[in-house]
Amino acid sequence: HSAEAGAGDDRLQQLLSLAAERITDGRLIDPDQDSARFYVLEALQIDPNGNATQAAKKTLARDLLAQARGAIDRRDFARAASLLDAADGIAAASNVEIARLLLRAARQQVAADTWDQLLQTAQERLQQDRLIEPAKDSAKYYLMTLRDANPSNAGLAPALQDLGLRLVAKARRALALQQYDVARNWLDEAAGVGFSSTDSSAALRELQAATQRQDFLDNAIDASRLTLVKSIKPTYPTMAEQTKTEGWVELDFTVAETGEVEDIAVHAANPPGVFDNAAI
Question: What is the pLDDT of residues 45-61, one digit of tens each?
Answer without folding.
Answer: 999 999 999 999 999 99
